[in-house]
Known about the structure:
The chain is of the alpha+beta class. Helix content is 35%, strand content 29%. The chain has two domains: 2-45; 55-276, no CATH class.
Amino acid sequence: MLKNYLKIAMRNIKKHKGYSFINIAGLAVGMTCCILILLWVHDEFSYDRYHEKATRIYRITYAEEIGGAYDHYAVPPFAAAPAFEAEVPEIVAYTRLWQRTGLIKYNDKKFDERGIFYVDKDFFKIFTHEFIKGEPATALVTPGSIVLTQSMAKKIFGDESSLGKTINLTEDGDLKVTGVVKDVPRNSHFRFNYLVSMNTIQGRRAEFLDAWLAIMGWSYILLDESADYKVVEKKLVPIVDNHAGAEAQKYGQKMFYFLQPLTDIHLKSHLEGEIEGNGDIRYVYVFSIIA
């Protein structure tokens, strides 16, 4: 029966070549477009999910209301994360990210670099990045430590071994290479080239590291496996009031803190001060319907 159907189909194709070509070509183009769109949709939903603890990672966001004007930021005051971690048992670890550019020197080489982030020691306890050299648990503990991506290590050191070598960064002086990690995957909502221990600037940047009314960078926390982030979010209110309530009242300022799931950031976050440009879940829905 199947063989008979195939014979009839082939006769019809030969008999109506133009019509058959249009139908087959149209079907092929339609299927190709559908597959490409679905691959793109899958890629959009894959952002940040390569982290082993992705479902437990949250970004702290900050909103303020002054004189009736309400603004919501992706960058909270840097004093918040350590205070929350100290007073909320469900918070296992935190890290803050402060981004900058700088001139990196090694011997007689100079590199004007971007993608330099100062981060807290638990960065690799929260985020998953494969180490080529060094130890994740200790790489960012000591002041003056710096971790490079594989491509940056190749760029600066060539075929030399980079671990333990010293490079010079504008303002911070000599930094010791304590780790090399694989390049950040493309499907990450932020990418770095260098990570410098936040302890390096702890003493001379206290004016913004300990400030409750200044916003400088991004903060992330790791919650316990059994924690409900909405419950944790409510616990932040009295902590903020205790540390910054009186100071905020002087300026007629109301402060609000929220926890944003890591896997929501790329498609669902369009706050002031995003670390990089994000996608949009609405486009994903539209193209999914088209597919």
